[in-house]
Amino acid sequence: MIAFEREDGVAMVIAMIAVLLLTAIGGALILTTSSETIIAAHFRDNLEARYAAGAMIDRVTNAIGRLGPVDDSDAMAANILAIWNSDRHAMSDQAREHALQFSWHHSMEALFGRVYPAAFARRAARQTAAEASAAAPLVRA
Questions:
Q1: CB count in 10 Å sphere of residue 21
Q2: In the 8-state DSSP scheme, what is residue 112?
Q3: How high is the mean pLDDT in each 10-residue block of the chain (141 residues)?
Q4: Beta carbons within 8 Å of 82's beta carbon, 6+ residues apart
Q5: 32 vs 36: CA distance, rounded Å
Q6: What is d(CA 29, CA 12) in angstroms, rounded to the nearest whole number?
Q7: Which DSSP helix (H) or strand (E) runs through 9?
Q8: Residue 134 has what pLDDT?
Q9: Are 67 and 60 in contact (CB under 8 A)?
Q10: CB–CB of 59/98 below 8 Å?
Q11: Distance CA 40, CA 51 (A)
Q12: Are 62 and 90 in contact, with CB atoms under 8 Å apart?
């Protein structure tokens, strides 16, 4: 039997195996995290598409477009022909005007121009009323 008296390199081999193991675990964690991020992004996109599709029924009128069943090619062809034979430029203008109601600029203008000032005015009125009632002397009969 061969006897090994020197064990100088054993610590180095164990350290290298530990580093390799930790590297593999780190790589697996990175892969899992990036996969979870991609899955969450796909879920969010799917949810947004479902909400947008549900809102189309309320938002799309015959003046700006046509809606039909997804699996009915005859209805789709009829909608295409209806739009093709109508005044497409007027429909386009009306659709653009309708879409601009939901633009970033319009939304921020409504939020900061009307909603926030009205909320601040209501808050100030409530504070003034609370201060007036707190300042009024208590009268006992």
A1: 10
A2: I
A3: 70 93 94 91 91 83 86 92 91 88 84 92 92 74 58
A4: 66
A5: 6
A6: 26
A7: none
A8: 79
A9: yes
A10: yes
A11: 17
A12: no
Per the listing, tokens 């009915």 go with 72
For 135, list phi and psi in degrees, rounded to 5: -80, -20
Which amino acid would we find at residue 32? T
Amino acid at 93: D
Instruction: Tell me the angle at which helices 73-84 and 88-100 cross, rounded to the nearest 10 degrees.
Output: 100
The two structure tokens encoding residue 80:
């295409």
Residue with tokens 């100030």: 124
Question: What DSSP designation does 116 have?
Answer: H
Q: What is the DSSP letter of 96?
A: H
Phi, psi of 29 (to 5 degrees): -65, -40
